[in-house]
Protein backbone atom coordinates (compact mmCIF):
# COMPACT_ATOMS: atom_id res chain seq x y z
CA UNK A 1 0.00 0.00 0.00
CA UNK A 2 1.45 3.36 -1.01
CA UNK A 3 0.57 6.38 1.07
CA UNK A 4 1.60 9.86 0.02
CA UNK A 5 1.36 12.92 2.24
CA UNK A 6 3.21 15.88 3.60
CA UNK A 7 5.31 13.31 5.43
CA UNK A 8 7.77 15.01 7.70
CA UNK A 9 5.91 18.21 7.13
CA UNK A 10 5.14 20.55 9.92
CA UNK A 11 2.03 19.95 11.94
CA UNK A 12 0.20 22.66 13.84
CA UNK A 13 0.93 21.47 17.30
CA UNK A 14 3.40 23.28 19.48
CA UNK A 15 6.47 21.23 20.26
CA UNK A 16 8.82 22.30 17.49
CA UNK A 17 6.56 20.42 15.14
CA UNK A 18 6.61 23.18 12.55
CA UNK A 19 9.74 21.47 11.38
CA UNK A 20 13.08 22.66 10.14
CA UNK A 21 13.39 23.62 6.49
CA UNK A 22 17.09 22.87 6.55
CA UNK A 23 17.96 19.31 5.57
CA UNK A 24 19.70 17.44 8.35
CA UNK A 25 23.10 15.90 7.75
CA UNK A 26 22.83 12.13 7.63
CA UNK A 27 25.33 9.51 8.76
CA UNK A 28 25.99 8.69 5.11
CA UNK A 29 26.88 12.31 4.44
CA UNK A 30 29.33 12.22 7.35
CA UNK A 31 30.86 9.06 5.93
CA UNK A 32 31.39 10.72 2.55
CA UNK A 33 33.13 13.63 4.25
CA UNK A 34 35.53 11.18 5.90
CA UNK A 35 36.72 9.95 2.52
CA UNK A 36 34.06 7.40 1.59
CA UNK A 37 34.24 5.38 4.79
CA UNK A 38 31.27 3.18 5.53
CA UNK A 39 28.90 5.08 7.86
CA UNK A 40 28.69 3.75 11.41
CA UNK A 41 25.41 3.87 13.29
CA UNK A 42 25.32 2.68 16.88
CA UNK A 43 22.61 0.42 18.25
CA UNK A 44 21.60 3.18 20.65
CA UNK A 45 21.05 5.57 17.72
CA UNK A 46 18.91 3.01 15.89
CA UNK A 47 16.79 2.38 18.98
CA UNK A 48 16.44 6.11 19.66
CA UNK A 49 15.32 6.79 16.09
CA UNK A 50 12.90 3.86 16.22
CA UNK A 51 11.41 5.15 19.47
CA UNK A 52 11.02 8.64 18.00
CA UNK A 53 9.23 7.30 14.92
CA UNK A 54 6.98 5.21 17.14
CA UNK A 55 6.11 8.24 19.24
CA UNK A 56 5.27 10.28 16.13
CA UNK A 57 3.06 7.48 14.82
CA UNK A 58 1.25 7.24 18.16
CA UNK A 59 0.72 11.00 18.14
CA UNK A 60 -0.72 11.14 14.62
CA UNK A 61 -2.69 7.88 14.65
CA UNK A 62 -3.24 7.39 18.37
CA UNK A 63 -6.59 9.13 18.42
CA UNK A 64 -7.91 6.91 15.62
CA UNK A 65 -9.08 3.30 15.78
CA UNK A 66 -7.23 1.02 13.35
CA UNK A 67 -9.82 -1.78 13.63
CA UNK A 68 -13.25 -0.11 13.55
CA UNK A 69 -14.60 2.34 10.99
CA UNK A 70 -15.24 5.76 12.51
CA UNK A 71 -18.48 6.28 10.54
CA UNK A 72 -20.70 5.25 13.48
CA UNK A 73 -19.23 8.12 15.53
CA UNK A 74 -20.61 10.70 13.13
CA UNK A 75 -18.50 13.73 12.27
CA UNK A 76 -15.42 13.05 14.41
CA UNK A 77 -13.92 16.21 15.89
CA UNK A 78 -10.45 15.25 14.63
CA UNK A 79 -9.09 12.04 13.15
CA UNK A 80 -6.40 10.72 10.82
CA UNK A 81 -7.74 10.61 7.24
CA UNK A 82 -6.70 9.27 3.85
CA UNK A 83 -7.83 9.76 0.26
CA UNK A 84 -7.78 6.87 -2.18
CA UNK A 85 -6.31 7.80 -5.56
CA UNK A 86 -7.27 4.36 -6.89
CA UNK A 87 -10.99 4.66 -6.09
CA UNK A 88 -11.47 8.45 -6.38
CA UNK A 89 -8.82 9.79 -8.79
CA UNK A 90 -8.56 13.40 -9.88
CA UNK A 91 -11.63 14.36 -11.87
CA UNK A 92 -13.93 12.36 -9.59
CA UNK A 93 -15.63 13.65 -6.46
CA UNK A 94 -13.24 13.96 -3.50
CA UNK A 95 -13.67 11.50 -0.64
CA UNK A 96 -11.94 10.72 2.63
CA UNK A 97 -11.56 7.46 4.52
CA UNK A 98 -10.69 6.66 8.12
CA UNK A 99 -7.63 4.79 9.36
CA UNK A 100 -9.38 1.43 9.74
CA UNK A 101 -10.81 1.56 6.20
CA UNK A 102 -7.40 2.49 4.80
CA UNK A 103 -6.16 -0.87 6.12
CA UNK A 104 -9.17 -3.10 5.57
CA UNK A 105 -10.77 -1.75 2.38
CA UNK A 106 -7.88 -0.02 0.56
CA UNK A 107 -4.85 -2.01 1.65
CA UNK A 108 -3.48 -2.45 -1.88
CA UNK A 109 -4.51 0.96 -3.21
CA UNK A 110 -2.58 4.18 -3.70
CA UNK A 111 -3.46 6.50 -0.81
CA UNK A 112 -2.78 10.12 0.05
CA UNK A 113 -2.19 10.68 3.76
CA UNK A 114 -4.13 13.77 4.83
CA UNK A 115 -2.76 13.93 8.38
CA UNK A 116 -5.85 15.03 10.37
CA UNK A 117 -9.07 16.82 9.51
CA UNK A 118 -11.78 18.15 11.80
CA UNK A 119 -15.49 17.31 11.84
CA UNK A 120 -15.23 14.62 9.17
CA UNK A 121 -17.26 11.43 8.64
CA UNK A 122 -15.76 8.46 6.80
CA UNK A 123 -16.85 8.26 3.13
CA UNK A 124 -15.60 4.73 2.44
CA UNK A 125 -18.07 2.77 0.32
CA UNK A 126 -20.63 5.54 -0.20
CA UNK A 127 -21.84 6.81 -3.59
CA UNK A 128 -18.46 8.37 -4.37
CA UNK A 129 -16.96 4.88 -4.61
CA UNK A 130 -18.36 3.31 -7.77
CA UNK A 131 -17.08 -0.25 -7.38
CA UNK A 132 -16.28 -0.59 -3.71
CA UNK A 133 -18.33 -1.44 -0.64
CA UNK A 134 -17.00 -0.81 2.83
CA UNK A 135 -16.04 -4.12 4.47
CA UNK A 136 -16.37 -2.75 7.99
CA UNK A 137 -19.68 -0.86 7.74
CA UNK A 138 -21.48 -1.59 4.44
CA UNK A 139 -24.63 0.35 5.38
CA UNK A 140 -23.79 4.02 4.98
CA UNK A 141 -25.54 7.14 3.70
CA UNK A 142 -24.87 7.99 0.06
CA UNK A 143 -22.99 11.19 0.99
CA UNK A 144 -21.83 13.09 4.07
CA UNK A 145 -23.09 16.65 3.44
CA UNK A 146 -21.20 18.25 6.34
CA UNK A 147 -17.78 17.04 5.17
CA UNK A 148 -15.45 19.66 3.72
CA UNK A 149 -12.90 18.89 1.01
CA UNK A 150 -9.99 20.63 -0.67
CA UNK A 151 -7.22 19.80 -3.15
CA UNK A 152 -5.42 17.74 -0.50
CA UNK A 153 -7.82 14.90 -1.29
CA UNK A 154 -6.18 14.65 -4.71
CA UNK A 155 -2.64 14.94 -3.37
CA UNK A 156 -2.21 18.66 -4.15
CA UNK A 157 -1.14 21.24 -1.59
CA UNK A 158 -0.41 24.92 -1.07
CA UNK A 159 -1.31 27.83 -3.37
CA UNK A 160 0.98 26.27 -5.97
CA UNK A 161 -1.23 23.13 -6.09
CA UNK A 162 1.71 20.77 -6.26
CA UNK A 163 2.15 17.25 -4.84
CA UNK A 164 4.27 16.54 -1.79
CA UNK A 165 6.96 15.50 -2.10
CA UNK A 166 7.26 17.31 -5.41
CA UNK A 167 9.59 15.51 -7.85
CA UNK A 168 10.12 18.75 -9.80
CA UNK A 169 10.90 20.93 -6.80
CA UNK A 170 14.54 20.91 -5.75
CA UNK A 171 14.12 23.60 -3.07
CA UNK A 172 14.06 22.10 0.45
CA UNK A 173 11.15 23.62 2.33
CA UNK A 174 8.91 22.80 5.27
CA UNK A 175 5.16 22.34 4.93
CA UNK A 176 2.90 24.09 7.45
CA UNK A 177 -0.80 23.45 7.92
CA UNK A 178 -3.31 26.29 8.21
CA UNK A 179 -5.53 25.69 11.23
CA UNK A 180 -8.58 27.24 9.53
CA UNK A 181 -8.75 25.72 6.03
CA UNK A 182 -6.40 22.82 7.01
CA UNK A 183 -4.49 23.03 3.72
CA UNK A 184 -0.71 22.62 3.74
CA UNK A 185 1.61 25.40 2.52
CA UNK A 186 5.27 25.72 1.61
CA UNK A 187 7.01 28.09 4.00
CA UNK A 188 8.13 30.26 1.08
CA UNK A 189 4.55 30.66 -0.20
CA UNK A 190 3.12 32.25 2.95
CA UNK A 191 4.01 35.85 2.05
CA UNK A 192 6.12 36.08 5.19
CA UNK A 193 9.22 34.33 6.43
CA UNK A 194 7.99 31.90 9.12
CA UNK A 195 9.46 32.34 12.62
CA UNK A 196 12.05 29.88 13.81
CA UNK A 197 10.83 26.33 14.27
CA UNK A 198 9.09 25.87 17.60
CA UNK A 199 8.43 29.58 18.16
CA UNK A 200 4.85 29.35 16.96
CA UNK A 201 2.02 26.93 17.62
CA UNK A 202 -0.42 27.49 14.75
CA UNK A 203 -0.59 29.27 11.38
CA UNK A 204 -3.42 31.01 9.56
CA UNK A 205 -2.87 31.39 5.82
CA UNK A 206 -3.40 34.62 3.88
CA UNK A 207 -6.73 33.54 2.36
CA UNK A 208 -8.14 32.62 5.77
CA UNK A 209 -6.91 35.92 7.25
CA UNK A 210 -8.85 37.69 4.51
CA UNK A 211 -11.92 35.58 5.34
CA UNK A 212 -11.52 36.25 9.08
CA UNK A 213 -10.32 39.88 9.15
CA UNK A 214 -11.04 40.22 12.88
CA UNK A 215 -7.82 38.28 13.47
CA UNK A 216 -5.80 41.27 12.21
CA UNK A 217 -6.95 43.24 15.27
CA UNK A 218 -5.47 40.52 17.53
CA UNK A 219 -2.28 40.06 15.51
CA UNK A 220 -0.27 43.02 16.94
CA UNK A 221 -0.87 41.74 20.47
CA UNK A 222 -0.90 37.96 20.06
CA UNK A 223 0.78 36.89 16.81
CA UNK A 224 4.43 35.82 16.75
CA UNK A 225 6.62 38.49 15.08
CA UNK A 226 8.13 37.57 11.73
CA UNK A 227 10.99 38.76 9.56
CA UNK A 228 9.47 41.01 6.92
CA UNK A 229 10.78 42.01 3.54
CA UNK A 230 11.86 45.62 3.08
CA UNK A 231 9.11 46.97 0.85
CA UNK A 232 7.17 50.23 0.57
CA UNK A 233 4.38 50.51 3.10
CA UNK A 234 1.75 50.56 0.40
CA UNK A 235 2.93 47.19 -0.85
CA UNK A 236 3.50 45.67 2.59
CA UNK A 237 0.02 46.23 3.87
CA UNK A 238 -2.83 48.63 4.58
CA UNK A 239 -3.24 50.55 7.82
CA UNK A 240 -6.90 50.29 8.63
CA UNK A 241 -8.62 53.57 9.50
CA UNK A 242 -10.39 53.26 12.81
CA UNK A 243 -12.71 55.55 14.73
CA UNK A 244 -10.82 57.27 17.51
CA UNK A 245 -12.24 57.09 21.01
CA UNK A 246 -12.14 59.94 23.46
CA UNK A 247 -9.15 58.37 25.16
CA UNK A 248 -7.22 58.18 21.87
CA UNK A 249 -8.00 61.82 21.09
CA UNK A 250 -6.86 62.86 24.52
CA UNK A 251 -3.57 61.03 24.12
CA UNK A 252 -3.07 62.83 20.80
CA UNK A 253 -3.66 66.27 22.29
CA UNK A 254 -7.41 66.39 21.94
CA UNK A 255 -9.81 68.94 23.40
CA UNK A 256 -9.10 69.87 27.03
CA UNK A 257 -12.84 69.71 27.67
CA UNK A 258 -12.70 65.91 27.55
CA UNK A 259 -13.87 64.25 30.73
CA UNK A 260 -11.32 62.42 32.84
CA UNK A 261 -11.72 58.74 33.66
CA UNK A 262 -12.73 59.61 37.25
CA UNK A 263 -15.47 61.95 35.96
CA UNK A 264 -16.75 59.23 33.62
CA UNK A 265 -16.93 56.70 36.45
CA UNK A 266 -18.71 59.17 38.67
CA UNK A 267 -21.19 59.94 35.90
CA UNK A 268 -21.77 56.25 35.27
CA UNK A 269 -22.50 55.72 38.97
CA UNK A 270 -25.22 58.39 39.07
CA UNK A 271 -28.76 56.96 39.38
CA UNK A 272 -30.69 56.86 36.12
CA UNK A 273 -33.88 58.81 35.75
CA UNK A 274 -35.33 56.92 32.77
CA UNK A 275 -35.48 53.44 31.27
CA UNK A 276 -33.80 54.79 28.14
CA UNK A 277 -30.68 55.83 30.04
CA UNK A 278 -30.65 52.44 31.82
CA UNK A 279 -30.73 50.69 28.45
CA UNK A 280 -27.96 52.93 27.12
CA UNK A 281 -25.86 52.31 30.19
CA UNK A 282 -26.36 48.54 29.81
CA UNK A 283 -25.24 48.66 26.19
CA UNK A 284 -22.15 50.70 27.10
CA UNK A 285 -21.16 48.27 29.84
CA UNK A 286 -21.66 45.28 27.55
CA UNK A 287 -19.66 46.89 24.73
CA UNK A 288 -16.80 47.71 27.07
CA UNK A 289 -16.36 44.03 27.86
CA UNK A 290 -15.70 43.11 24.22
CA UNK A 291 -11.97 42.55 23.81
CA UNK A 292 -12.23 42.75 20.03
CA UNK A 293 -13.86 46.21 20.11
CA UNK A 294 -11.13 47.47 22.41
CA UNK A 295 -8.50 46.27 19.95
CA UNK A 296 -10.32 47.59 16.90
CA UNK A 297 -10.18 51.20 18.11
CA UNK A 298 -6.43 51.07 17.69
CA UNK A 299 -4.59 51.23 14.38
CA UNK A 300 -3.37 47.91 13.11
CA UNK A 301 -1.71 46.75 9.92
CA UNK A 302 -3.51 44.37 7.58
CA UNK A 303 -0.96 42.65 5.36
CA UNK A 304 -1.18 40.20 2.49
CA UNK A 305 0.53 37.45 4.44
CA UNK A 306 -0.09 34.50 6.68
CA UNK A 307 0.13 34.93 10.46
CA UNK A 308 1.73 32.75 13.13
CA UNK A 309 0.30 32.26 16.58
CA UNK A 310 1.74 31.06 19.91
CA UNK A 311 0.50 28.40 22.31
CA UNK A 312 -2.86 29.16 24.02
CA UNK A 313 -3.57 32.19 21.81
CA UNK A 314 -7.13 30.94 21.24
CA UNK A 315 -7.96 31.38 24.93
CA UNK A 316 -7.36 35.12 24.55
CA UNK A 317 -10.05 35.62 21.87
CA UNK A 318 -13.17 37.46 22.96
CA UNK A 319 -16.14 35.30 23.99
CA UNK A 320 -18.86 37.92 24.20
CA UNK A 321 -22.21 37.19 22.57
CA UNK A 322 -21.51 39.28 19.47
CA UNK A 323 -18.13 37.68 18.88
CA UNK A 324 -19.51 34.16 19.33
CA UNK A 325 -22.13 34.95 16.69
CA UNK A 326 -19.41 36.29 14.39
CA UNK A 327 -17.37 33.06 14.80
CA UNK A 328 -20.46 31.06 13.90
CA UNK A 329 -21.24 33.22 10.85
CA UNK A 330 -17.63 32.85 9.64
CA UNK A 331 -17.74 29.08 10.32
CA UNK A 332 -14.82 29.20 12.76
CA UNK A 333 -16.46 28.36 16.11
CA UNK A 334 -13.74 25.75 16.60
CA UNK A 335 -11.37 28.59 17.52
CA UNK A 336 -13.09 28.54 20.92
CA UNK A 337 -12.16 24.90 21.48
CA UNK A 338 -8.69 24.14 22.81
CA UNK A 339 -9.33 20.44 22.14
CA UNK A 340 -9.55 21.30 18.42
CA UNK A 341 -5.83 21.95 18.19
CA UNK A 342 -3.60 19.32 16.62
CA UNK A 343 -1.43 19.42 19.74
CA UNK A 344 -4.40 18.43 21.91
CA UNK A 345 -5.20 15.60 19.47
CA UNK A 346 -1.61 14.37 19.47
CA UNK A 347 -1.36 14.51 23.25
CA UNK A 348 -4.59 12.58 23.61
CA UNK A 349 -3.40 9.96 21.16
CA UNK A 350 -0.05 9.60 22.93
CA UNK A 351 -1.65 9.37 26.38
CA UNK A 352 -4.27 6.84 25.21
CA UNK A 353 -1.61 4.69 23.58
CA UNK A 354 0.62 4.82 26.65
CA UNK A 355 -2.30 3.77 28.83
CA UNK A 356 -3.12 0.87 26.50
CA UNK A 357 0.44 -0.34 26.16
CA UNK A 358 0.99 -3.34 28.40
CA UNK A 359 4.22 -4.98 29.39
CA UNK A 360 4.07 -8.57 28.06
CA UNK A 361 6.42 -9.73 30.82
CA UNK A 362 4.09 -8.36 33.51
CA UNK A 363 1.09 -9.92 31.78
CA UNK A 364 2.86 -13.29 31.80
CA UNK A 365 3.88 -12.95 35.44
CA UNK A 366 0.35 -12.13 36.56
CA UNK A 367 -0.88 -15.46 35.18
CA UNK A 368 1.70 -17.55 37.12
CA UNK A 369 1.99 -18.80 40.66
CA UNK A 370 4.74 -17.61 43.00
CA UNK A 371 7.27 -20.36 42.15
CA UNK A 372 6.82 -19.88 38.39
CA UNK A 373 7.20 -16.12 38.77
CA UNK A 374 10.56 -16.52 40.55
CA UNK A 375 11.81 -18.96 37.92
CA UNK A 376 10.80 -16.68 35.05
CA UNK A 377 12.43 -13.64 36.63
CA UNK A 378 15.65 -15.59 37.15
CA UNK A 379 15.63 -16.76 33.53
CA UNK A 380 14.98 -13.21 32.34
CA UNK A 381 17.84 -11.81 34.40
CA UNK A 382 20.20 -14.53 33.12
CA UNK A 383 19.26 -13.75 29.53
CA UNK A 384 19.71 -10.01 30.02
CA UNK A 385 23.10 -10.43 31.70
CA UNK A 386 24.48 -12.86 29.13
CA UNK A 387 23.22 -10.82 26.18
CA UNK A 388 24.75 -7.65 27.61
CA UNK A 389 28.12 -9.37 28.08
CA UNK A 390 27.91 -10.85 24.59
CA UNK A 391 27.24 -7.50 22.92
CA UNK A 392 29.94 -5.76 24.96
CA UNK A 393 32.56 -7.83 23.15
CA UNK A 394 31.47 -6.36 19.83
CA UNK A 395 31.54 -2.85 21.27
CA UNK A 396 35.04 -3.35 22.68
CA UNK A 397 36.32 -4.74 19.38
CA UNK A 398 34.51 -2.09 17.32
CA UNK A 399 32.83 -4.71 15.11
CA UNK A 400 29.30 -4.73 13.71
CA UNK A 401 26.71 -7.09 15.20
CA UNK A 402 25.23 -9.22 12.43
CA UNK A 403 22.05 -11.24 12.29
CA UNK A 404 23.93 -14.54 12.46
CA UNK A 405 25.72 -13.33 15.60
CA UNK A 406 22.42 -12.83 17.39
CA UNK A 407 21.14 -16.16 16.11
CA UNK A 408 24.29 -17.88 17.38
CA UNK A 409 23.87 -16.26 20.82
CA UNK A 410 20.35 -17.60 21.30
CA UNK A 411 21.33 -21.06 20.09
CA UNK A 412 24.17 -21.17 22.62
CA UNK A 413 21.95 -19.75 25.35
CA UNK A 414 19.33 -22.46 24.77
CA UNK A 415 22.06 -25.11 24.75
CA UNK A 416 23.43 -23.91 28.09
CA UNK A 417 19.94 -23.80 29.52
CA UNK A 418 19.29 -27.44 28.47
CA UNK A 419 22.56 -28.57 30.03
CA UNK A 420 21.66 -26.88 33.31
CA UNK A 421 18.24 -28.49 33.27
CA UNK A 422 19.64 -31.97 32.52
CA UNK A 423 22.02 -31.78 35.49
CA UNK A 424 19.20 -31.04 37.92
CA UNK A 425 18.23 -33.89 40.28
CA UNK A 426 14.76 -34.21 41.63
CA UNK A 427 13.95 -35.94 44.91
CA UNK A 428 10.57 -37.12 46.12
CA UNK A 429 9.86 -37.04 49.81
From TrEMBL:
Q: What is this protein called?
A: Putative E3 ubiquitin-protein ligase UBR7
Species this protein is from: Anolis carolinensis (Green anole)
Catalytic activity annotated for this protein?
S-ubiquitinyl-[E2 ubiquitin-conjugating enzyme]-L-cysteine + [acceptor protein]-L-lysine = [E2 ubiquitin-conjugating enzyme]-L-cysteine + N(6)-ubiquitinyl-[acceptor protein]-L-lysine
Residue ranges, compositional bias (Basic and acidic residues): 19-37
Q: Taking every annotated instance into account, which residue ranges of this chain make up the domain UBR-type?
A: 67-139
Q: What class of enzyme is it?
A: transferase
Q: Which sequence ranges are marked TM in the entry?
A: none
Q: Which ranges are annotated Low complexity under compositional bias?
A: 1-15
- CDD domains in the cross-refs: PHD_UBR7, UBR-box_UBR7
Gene (UniProt): UBR7
Record key words, sorted: Isopeptide bond, Metal-binding, Phosphoprotein, Transferase, Ubl conjugation, Ubl conjugation pathway, Zinc, Zinc-finger
Amino acid sequence: MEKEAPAGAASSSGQGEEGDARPKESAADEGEERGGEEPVVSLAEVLAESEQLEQEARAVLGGSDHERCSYSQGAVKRQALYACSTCTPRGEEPAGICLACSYECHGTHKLFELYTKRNFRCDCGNSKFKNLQCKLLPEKATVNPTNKYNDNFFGLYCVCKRPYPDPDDEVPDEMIQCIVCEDWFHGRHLGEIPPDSGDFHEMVCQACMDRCPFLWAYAPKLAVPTVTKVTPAAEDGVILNVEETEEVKKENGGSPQMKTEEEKVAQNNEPSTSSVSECSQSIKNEASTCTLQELQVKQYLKKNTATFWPHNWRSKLCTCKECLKMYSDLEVPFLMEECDTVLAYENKGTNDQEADRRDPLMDTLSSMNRVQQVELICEYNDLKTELKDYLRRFADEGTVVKREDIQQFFEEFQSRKRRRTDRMQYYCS
